[in-house]
Design goal:
This protein is mostly helical. The protein contains 11 helices and no strands.
Length: about 240
């Protein structure tokens, strides 16, 4: 039986930025994407529509469709633009774990700057654009001397991204301190003291009061988790 031919999926990057016909281009995808990022950062992802973006740019919605075929394509461009904010210029140092943690901290910071990105990926899945592919290749280059199979390394990179998103969500203004407030800690201690949750009471008694979690403390916790989890995922384990 002949092998079935597969057609690569069509993305906004698989065709020219602008058709050859028609009037001279007045804008670029880069300009349009930058305006969309500003709109999402200021008002949230739901505010990003072709009409609202056109108003922001001082043009008509129809003119934008000469550059971007749909809102979904615009969202893909926005996600990839955030991936392009990461600095991938440094060559791997040989310390794969340290380099990967540094990359993860960059990713977390980018998600914290653009809180809408996590919701976008949750709803639509991640479409890998050129910058995202550069990121993936760079992470694999960092992991070249690490133990583990190629599949394990791809899984580790996926875990890194998931944890970066999770921690960034906790740092978003709407949720900052929601799980670390003194009131929340006091409520948990009071429930444990009632006696119905002996294991929780023992753990809280041993751990002591939770520290105030500022940005530096959250970064330190994020790094500790990665340094524990990533070697284990790659079959190296802990000493």
């Amino acid at each position: 039986m002949a092998e079935r031919e597969t057609t690569p999926p069509t993305t906004v990057w698989s065709r020219p930025e602008r058709g050859a016909r028609g009037p001279a281009p007045e804008r670029s995808r880069y300009e349009i994407t930058g305006a969309a990022l500003g709109l999402a950062d200021a008002e949230g992802l739901a505010a990003v529509s072709m009409r609202a973006l056109a108003q922001r740019l001082g043009t008509g919605p129809a003119s934008l469709y000469r550059y971007v075929g749909s809102r979904d394509e615009l969202l893909d461009l926005m996600a990839d633009a955030v991936a392009g904010e990461l600095d991938l210029s440094a060559a791997p140092s040989g310390d794969w774990l340290g380099d990967l943690v540094g990359l993860a901290l960059q990713s977390k910071a980018a998600h914290a700057r653009h809180p809408w990105l996590a919701d976008l990926n949750d709803r639509r899945g991640e479409v890998l654009g050129p910058h995202a592919i550069d990121y993936l290749d760079h992470a694999l280059a960092i992991l070249a001397p690490a133990p583990g199979t190629s599949g394990q390394k791809l899984e580790a990179i996926g875990l890194l991204g998931g944890l970066a998103t999770l921690f960034a969500r906790r740092e978003a203004p709407a949720s900052a301190g929601a799980g670390d407030s003194p009131a929340q800690a006091a409520h948990l201690a009071a429930v444990a003291a009632e006696g119905s949750h002996p294991h929780l009471l023992a753990a809280l008694t041993t751990a002591g009061p939770p520290p105030v979690a500022g940005p530096a403390e959250r970064d330190a916790l994020f790094e500790r988790l990665l340094r524990r989890l990533l070697p284990a995922m790659l079959g190296q384990g802990l000493p």
